[in-house]
Amino acid sequence: NEAITMHRAALELRPVENDEWDRSWSLNELAVRLSHRYDQEWSVNDLEEAVTLGREALELRPPGHPDRALSLQNLACDLKKRFALKAVMRDLEESIELLRQVLELCPTGYSDQPSTFHRLALCLSERHDQLG
């Protein structure tokens, strides 16, 4: 909770019109902390805010940004969590698309590649379970 409070304070000090790199970092870090708290406390508001902030961070990390894959991965995970909670297919479809983008961006053998393939496989399996 204290980490979330501190990340919120840091974000307030980084207005939109200032350095987008720093703001995207703050948005991403706050989204990650909220997502972790959701995992512990199951607060839907935390998950919804994590998705919103993750989208904002991704907007500030266009193609070519060195941290784009990280933002894609984090948002994909939060959307998968939201799908598990609300069963809205759009969330699962978007998660699949974002994970595919991560794999396209990252070179073969990058350290998180196996877990990204695993996450994508889980999402595809879930889609199959839902749609046949």
TL;DR of this structure?
79% of the residues lie in helices and 0% in strands. It has 132 residues and is an all-alpha fold.
Class in CATH?
A: Mainly Alpha
Main beta sheet strand tally, sense and closure: none
CATH fold group: Serine Threonine Protein Phosphatase 5, Tetratricopeptide repeat
Class inferred from helices and paired strands: mainly alpha
Unreliable parts: none
- Gross CATH architecture: Alpha Horseshoe
- Determine the strand fraction and express it as a percent band: under 5%
H and E order:
HHHHHH
Distance between the termini: 41 Å
- What's the helical proportion of residues? over 70%
Describe this structure in words.
The chain is an all-alpha fold and 132 residues long. The protein has one domain: Tetratricopeptide repeat domain (Serine Threonine Protein Phosphatase 5, Tetratricopeptide repeat, Alpha Horseshoe), CATH 1.25.40.10. 79% of the residues lie in helices and 0% in strands. Helix 2 (20-41) runs antiparallel to helix 3 (44-59) and helix 4 runs antiparallel to helix 5 (89-105). The longest helix is centred in the N-terminal third of the chain and has 22 residues, at 20-41. It holds the Pfam family TPR_10. This is Kinesin light chain.
